[in-house]
């Protein structure tokens, strides 16, 4: 993580996301811009959380570690999700891992600042409650999807959620398959068979250590926007 104290950049992202009412003078002067590289952990399960973060650029995936050591996909974060809101309210450690899918930018507000003022700030409290409610609904929906949808649909949706933007010249999918199989609750062999089936349908093309999406439209139809 790289931290920058840049008031102009902070103001730019506040205006772009229309969240001026959430940033009083005290919050503004203590805010920072936080940069994360692709595949960097923004939050790590069990660690102390030091910032409430407003996600203003990029994408991240959220997953937890089960008692048997397996990983389970919970959610995806994008603009304007918040990170650290639950930990601010419960004063607890991070309950899951948040990993950057691509380079990410957040506005970070130190929790030590917010803990003294947030409960008197109705605008911020309403925003955080609304944010927590939306994340709970998404997480419940995604948990149901992991149980009810065939793997082919889940893989298609996952690839779209983490893949390079469809406007790029090459749409690439290059994550570690053993990790993906855990996140999607399947075996490595089943995942590999599913990816091979998508290649046989001319939706994906296998390169040396990654896949290229060659039929984005059909991949979208398979995904049906199931992960949100």
TrEMBL record:
Keywords: DNA-binding, Transcription, Transcription regulation. Residues 36-135 form the Cyclic nucleotide-binding domain. InterPro entries: cNMP-bd_dom, cNMP-bd_dom_sf, Env_Response_Regulators, HTH_CRP, RmlC-like_jellyroll, WH_DNA-bd_sf. The keyword Methyltransferase does not apply. Pfam families: cNMP_binding (PF00027), HTH_Crp_2 (PF13545). The keyword Transferase does not apply. Residues 149-217 form the HTH crp-type domain. One of its GO terms (cellular component) is cytosol. One of its GO terms (molecular function) is DNA binding. NCBIfam families: PRK10402.1. This is Transcriptional regulator YeiL. The gene is yeiL.
